[in-house]
Amino acid sequence: MDKASWSGVVLGVGGIVGGLLLEGGRLSQILQPTAAMIVFGGTAGAILIQFPLGVVFTAVRRLAHVFFQPDLQSQELVQELVKFAKQARRQGIVSLDPELPRITDPFMQKGLMLAVDGMEPRELRKLMELEMEAKAEREEKIPQVFESAGGFSPTIGIIGAVLGLIQVMQHLDKIDEVGRGIAVAFVATVYGVGAANLVFLPSAGKLRIRIREEQIVREMTLEGVVSIQEGMNPRMLENKLMAFLTESKAELGPEAQPSETETESVESSP
């Protein structure tokens, strides 16, 4: 569970609702189903016009990664690559062929399969880097979905407010209801601006971090496979791969740093 995301939701929503209550307001004043339908329905429609359906569905599925950090098993990958390096140095890289069906990571499996088949290290690196670039280009569209939603929702909220004001202006003969009608009309603007700044744009930023974490693991895996093919000493390979985890920590913050216990377990692995 990503504590930062959950804490951000609590602080953000709590601060806004708390401020409303301190000013003498009521939750019922901002709970307007019609305004929510206009803002979120209109934003969803704009997103579907801009992006293919598959990209939108993928982005919605990945939304869970904002609140729950996926287990990339980077420590396990390091241990597995070091084990393969030792086996390749003792018995030759062809001895890894029976291990391929048991590898759960598709990217590692494909890289080792090409290495076992005898592809030159330079060609293998070039081919796998092309695959990484293509995947990164597809993944880039995921945070773009939420960034676009963050741009659309405030404008849709303004549209909702204008629609509400139109309805109010048609009943100016009931002047005692005009004030209440105007207040209700502006709830759509609150929804649009609030959704953009509390949900859509922050989610886009967090998903960029998650995607970068996955990219670092793939880069580490590629370096491990190429190093195994080149016959690198397993101990040197282990230090090289651990440097990727250190880089991940530097780029992404303390949550990406392997714990001391995990690091010691990798260093003491046979």
Topology:
Layout: H1 3-22, H2 33-50, H3 53-62, H4 74-91, H5 106-116, H6 121-169, H7 175-185, H8 187-230, H9 234-252, H10 260-267
Model description:
The protein is mainly alpha-helical and 270 residues long. The protein is built from ten helices and no strands. The protein has helices at 3-22, 33-50, 53-62, 74-91, 106-116, 121-169, 175-185, 187-230, 234-252, 260-267.
Total strands: the figure is 0
Low-confidence stretches: 254-270
The radius of gyration over CA amounts to 26 Å
Report the portion of residues in β strands: under 5%
Strand/helix succession: HHHHHHHHHH
Continuous helix count: 10
User: For the terminal residues, how far apart are their CA atoms?
Assistant: 32 Å
Relative helix content: over 70%
Class per helix and strand makeup:
mainly alpha
**Main beta sheet strand tally, sense and closure:** none
In short:
It is built from ten helices and no strands. By secondary structure, it is mostly helical.
